[in-house]
Input
Amino acid sequence: MHETDMTKALIMTVRDWYVSQPDPPTIEAIHLVVGQFTCVEPAGLAFAFKAQTHKTFLEGVPLVIRETPLIAFCGPCDRPYHPQIGLQYTCPTCGGAMEDIRSGRELKIERIEYSLEGAKV
Amino acid sequence: MHQTFNAALELNLLHANQEGADHNRAHFDQWGIRCLNLMSSPGAGKTALLERTLAALQQELKIVVIEGDMTTELDADRLRQYGVPVIAINTGRSCHLDSQMVSGGIHTLARDYDPQSVDLVFVENVGNLVCPAEFEVGEHAKVALLSVTEGEDKPLKYPLMFQEADCLLITKMDLAPYLDLDLAQLEANVRQMNPHVTLIPVSAKTGAGLDLWLDWVRSQVQQGAALAMA
Output
């Protein structure tokens, strides 16, 4: 379950951010981007996050995961295409190998959504 | 009514592991060591390959093995017979090695052995075709093993591992005559996502193909030495 390790890294990063803030913010949501061409299963991350944040400052905070599709770029054809994971990775037009991945390898914490106590509009 | 703000982090989830891997590699570079990360599914023959490799190279190169795939002490003892230091690291129930675990192995290397005299470190990863591909440990090159009994479709099913590999060994070639393996199809599948990989069919049992593998290892060590001189 490498999602457990990744969740640990996620929580540590958010904690670092949290303690570096001048006023303790209320974290409303954490937004992640997870590419389809990674070894990470979003459901596994969501489960691990729920389990590991139990009774911590992140308990109940929604983890919003946006998945990005695998998109490769074929140089000879000069255009992007969608490889079919598990079936075919080559360019459907010319049969060239998948060498240039433009989307699908993301594994990142995009942003933290937060509010400040007493911040009135 | 409260206002919400956004803190844009744009931080990779593997950021900490990547920093650790870069740190490990800096140690290897400082000592003039080439590090190869061996990965495969369980039972593809990583330990058998290492046995043959150590037997062939231990006279000409100073080699250390960092052993992560330790089901029993017997594995490490098998390798120690070749007079090569084997540093066993405790992986617990992890499904892969990460840079922090390998860092522990590097500290043992620095404390108990003379790292300046070492040419080559093999890291034997945990048997798994999925996550080791995602966790760099500080290696200079990745070596993947796929045994003929696993089938030619595996590169399509576990593309990351085969895409990341610098060298792919097709192992247990002595069994190929008894199987319906289509080696040409296997190679075509791998080259879909990794057209430039060095692909070497080998048999640790008969020794077939090992010369090519040993030459590849030597060329890796020479590249490391050339970098250290530069």
Summary: The mean pLDDT of chain B is 93.
